[in-house]
Amino acid sequence: MRNTFIDNISLEETKPLFFNRIEKYSKKETIPTEKSLGRVTSSPVFANVSSPNFNASAMDGILVRSKDTETASETNPVTLKKDKDFLYVNTGNPVNPEFDAVIMIEEVVEAENGDVRIIKSAYPYQHIRNVGEDIIKNDMILPSFHEIRPEDIGALFAGGIFEIEVVKKPKVAIIPTGSEIVEDYRNLKVGDIIDSNSRMFEAMITVSGGEPYRYSPVRDERELLKKNILDAVGKNDIVIINAGSSAGTHDYTKSLIEELGEVIIHGIAIKPGKPTILGFIEDKPVIGIPGYPVSAYFVYQEFVKSLLEKMLCRDDEKADIVKASLSKRIYSSLKHKEFVRMTLGYVGGKLVATPLDRGAGVSMSLVKADGILVISRNNEGHDIGEEVEIKLLKPLSAIKKSIVVIGSNDPIMDRISDRIKLSLSHVGSFGGVLALKKKETTIAPIHILDSKSGTYNTGVLNKYFPSGDAALIKGIKREQGLMVPKGNPKNIRGIEDLIRADLTFMNRQRGAGTRILLDYNLEKLGIDNNDIQGYEREAVTHMAAAMSVKSSTCDLALGVKSAADILDLDFILVDYEDYDFAVLKDSLEDERVLKFIEYLKSEEFSKEIDNIPGYKLENPGEIVEIS
Ligand SMILES: Nc1nc2c(c(=O)[nH]1)N[C@H]1C(S)=C(S)[C@@H](COP(=O)(O)OP(=O)(O)OC[C@H]3O[C@@H](n4cnc5c(N)ncnc54)[C@H](O)[C@@H]3O)O[C@H]1N2
Ligand code: MOO
Fold first, then answer.
1. Distance 487 CA to ligand 2 centre (A)
2. DSSP 8-state assignment for residue 162
3. Which one, of 326, 464, 447, 295, lies nearest residue 390 by Cα?
4. Distance between CA atoms of residues 8 and 265, nearest Å
5. What 8-state DSSP symbol labels residue 272?
6. Same domain, 371 and 239
7. Which atom belonging to ligand 1 lies closest to the Cα atom of 295?
8. Chain segment 548-606, per-residue pLDDT in tens
9. 367 alpha carbon to ligand 1 midpoint, in Å?
């Protein structure tokens, strides 16, 4: 049976319908204070003892009676008799009740007979810490519903609190569902998906102050899922059911929540996360979270995190927001509110935001994201260059360190970014040149062949930066060639074979340097594009092109050797090309760019390249001026 009806209610309208039914969580437990980090107090905590609980010297020196010192001055020093008028004391020692002040040892002149002379009077209670200076017995150390921090633990111990009553961690059951979901990565069969979401939920629940309880993936069988849901509801405070939320034939979550309790919402106007289900069974919140990892992340953030915050009376944590200029146009549908993962970086003092992959299945877009752009439901998107607000996922100080790199893609960039923080966006060589022109990137990796001169990269910069404000940082030389299945079963020899009727090709997108190299070679050989099957099909990265060969979507594609190697494909060399870094001359003074150049010139980089077949170096880091 399919779920046919899915609501499309806004996130803003949904929240009160759900959260108004959630009550403050009242279960408590007493735990050792040293184990209380991150826990939430259930009631105010009052001190058992004062700190200090005696009058204590605040300095190393002598204990005196202040009235004995009243007349002391440089011209009229006062002598204090050993054992009678003063006692030696160290910082923290109790103050003998006979005395009422401390003079620091530096201000004391010691005579040979053991007496001392002082030249300054001491006022009553000078350098004495009174009983309870820090904490007085019965003072409130922490209020209720306070999240305990390391400094709180210190104060609790000082106040004699060795055990503390805290709110119990709400128990959150995670039930991953789907017959395709497996727990082991070995022997993966076609169709198997590793259960990654429930591992992410476990960590998120822990961060939110809950106690996760993860079930093993449940096969798509209605009765089995029902049994697991009932078990989870019996033992937990919140139940998350992952996947099976949509309209598939095996999506039982909604009908089971309906059967066992009540469904409040199925379908929210957000992307990703549309088929979310919110309901209650035995008054316990039950949330059906969509299966795609990115949908799972956002639905957790919007509902489960807020739920735990509300139950634990924690402040809802609001991300910091920054304004940034968009480096790409973003379209969005009026049907939903959208959460777009973005990378951020400073280019010439301006914060630039670039969207990452928007697919709900691309969990790496969350790993790479510096922030989130929320596009509201009544908004069709944003223009290139428009100023937008981004919710930060990383501190701005970390974002300031990274260099924005927009342009052509090469697997070597990931390796460089392991050393020098790069914020990478792959738009092809020409996209990089245009981004540089518009000052939206600091570095543009390019490999553009000038078909007249047969040289790389300088031609295009001469053309686009005629006033000479660009420069080229020499990068690497890489082998470009035909990627074909292992063993080259169709016996492909070179570019000339592209017109063979038994071969289908996969091209790269317009503007990609690899495509220009292809066209250059086709022209040299006098081949017409129209004679190539698949010329119009486009992959956006070398890896995507290699993947299409690996998955038999095509017979061959043009790309770099490293991509072919990663996927264990055969490779037929076409040419070496120059993969260099275009920059604006100004940024040659940017500290981050200087570090990048230094790394290209380093022994470490040269060793790294030596280990990867298909690359060679010729003066990496050298600056070529564009006249
Ligand atoms: N006809 C329609 N089809 C779909 C709709 C729709 O409205 N009409 N909505 C789409 C949207 S949007 C989403 S989101 C998904 C949600 O699907 P389900 O929640 O039913 O989840 P599945 O289809 O079972 O899985 C989706 C995807 O996620 C993977 N997955 C599932 N569990 C895990 C896990 N524990 N760890 C990692 N990955 C997991 C699963 O294998 C699938 O690839 O429905 C669309 N379809
Ligand atoms: O809304 Mo679904 O959550 O896009 O992938």
1. 40
2. -
3. 326
4. 9
5. S
6. no
7. 14
8. 999 999 999 999 998 999 999 999 999 999 999 999 999 999 999 999 999 999 999 99
9. 20
Rounded to whole angstroms, the Cα distance separating 606 from 461 reads: 26
The tens digit of pLDDT for each residue in 4-53 reads 557 889 999 999 999 999 888 889 999 999 999 999 999 999 999 999 99
Domain identity same for 263 and 288: yes
Nearest ligand by distance to the CA of 245: 1
> What is the position in ligand 2's atom list of the atom closest to the CA of 360?
5
Q: Is the dihedral of CA 292, 295, 299, 305 positive or negative?
A: positive
> 243 and 206, same structural domain?
yes
- Token pair in block for residue 192: 């198997």
For residue 358, report the distance from its CA to the centre of ligand 1, in Å.
15
How confident is residue 453, by pLDDT bands cut at 50, 70 and 90? Answer: confident
CA of 273 to the centre of ligand 2 (A): 4
Ligand 2 centroid from CA 293, angstroms: 9
pLDDT category at 536 given cuts 50, 70, 90 is very high
Among residues 277, 292, 311, the one where a domain terminates is 311
- Ligand 1: atom nearest CA of 6 is 7
Ligand 2, atom 4: closest residue by C-alpha: 272
Distance CA 254, CA 256 (A): 5
- Residue 436 falls within a domain, yes or no? no
- Give mean pLDDT, residues 103-116: 94
Nearest atom in ligand 2 to the alpha carbon of residue 290 is 3
**Centre of ligand 2 from the C-alpha of residue 340, in Å:** 12
User: Is the CB of residue 265 less than 8 Å from the CB of residue 17?
Assistant: yes
pTM for the predicted model, two decimal places: 0.84
**DSSP label at 416?**
H
Ligand nearest to the CA of 217: 1
Confidence of residue 2 (pLDDT cuts 50, 70, 90): low
Specify the CATH number for the domain of residue 191: 3.40.980.10
Q: What residues are in contact with ligand 2 under a 6 Å CB criterion?
A: 271-274, 290, 292, 295, 360
Ligand 1: residue of 193, 252, 292, 339 to mutate (most ligand atoms within 8 A of CB) is 292
Lowest mean pLDDT of 129-143, 308-322, 588-602, name the range. Answer: 308-322
Does residue 422 lie within any of the structural domains?
no
Tokens of 214: 């993860």
Atom of ligand 1 nearest to the CA of 251: 20
